Amino acid sequence: MKVTLVTATYNSEQYLEDSIKSILSQTYKNIEYIIVDGKSSDGTLSIINKYDSHIDKWISESDRGMYEALNKGMQMATGDIIGLVHSNDILASDDVVESIVKIFE
Fold first, then answer.
1. Sign (positive/negative) of CA torsion 16, 69, 58, 83?
2. pLDDT in 10s for each residue of the chain, 105 residues
């Protein structure tokens, strides 16, 4: 089962890297990771570029807020399960996604 995780972000350089690391550390590996940035003006894009090879899809463009950004991400998603991980959130443990997939199976 493919899991898509979507992160909407805007000027989140303070938190985004920890959020990305929590997703990359997941034991479940069939994860599609999408970031939708609202055209940040801080160091957010530098962080996204740093992890570019681990992010399946990302865009940075103006939007009308978090909900539009999340909708854009969900429209790009190809996973069987779609989850939202906000830019200032971290997953509680490395097996969170694996546990969710087991419930769906």
1. positive
2. 999 999 999 999 999 999 999 999 999 999 999 999 999 999 999 999 999 999 999 999 999 999 999 999 999 999 999 999 999 999 999 999 999 999 999
Q: What type of residue sits at position 73?
A: G
**Long-range contacts of 44-48, Cβ-Cβ distance < 8 Å, separation of 24 or more:** 44/9, 44/10, 44/11, 44/12, 44/13, 44/16, 44/87, 46/13, 47/13, 47/16, 47/17, 47/20, 48/16
The pTM assigned to this predicted structure is: 0.95
List Cα–Cα distances, 36 to 48, 93, 95, 102, in angstroms.
10, 23, 24, 27
The vertex-42 CA angle with 39 and 44, nearest 5°, equals 70
Contact 91, 26 (CB under 8 A): yes
